Amino acid sequence: MEISGLISAILIGAVIGILGRLAVPGRQRIGVLWTIAVGIVAALIGTAIASGLGVADTDGVDWGEWLIQIVLAALGVAALSRVKVRR
Q1: With contact defined as beta carbons under 8 Å apart, do 38 and 56 qualify?
Q2: Alpha-carbon distances of 47 from 8, 27, 31, 54, rounded to whole Å
Q3: Contact status, residue 74 vs residue 24, Cβ threshold 8 Å
Q4: How far is residue 9's CA from residue 37's CA, in Å, rounded to a whole number?
């Protein structure tokens, strides 16, 4: 992986994490770095799932892939927030 790929993964992960965080109602007790980390993981897993479903490579914007990634990020943010609250 080149440096440009790493930078784009971080940027896309940040966007996915923020959108996932916005999708979760209420206050989340996690920081920005955790949000970005959840977004990066959700983007990677979401891309794999979208590839398996055959919606990763479409003409134009891959809305199905984005939707999968945002849902995974929302689930990750909610789960991490619950873990942080219990401590």
Answers
A1: no
A2: 14, 27, 24, 10
A3: yes
A4: 10
Each residue's pLDDT, cut to its tens digit, for the chain (87 residues) gives 578 777 887 888 899 999 999 999 888 888 889 998 999 999 889 888 988 988 877 787 788 888 999 999 999 999 998 887 676
State how far the Cα of 37 lies from the Cα of 52, in Å rounded to an integer: 23
This prediction has a pTM of 0.84
Dihedral of alpha carbons 7, 16, 35, 54, sign: negative
Distance between CA atoms of residues 85 and 42, nearest Å: 21
Q: What DSSP string runs through 40-51?
A: HHHHHHHHHHHH
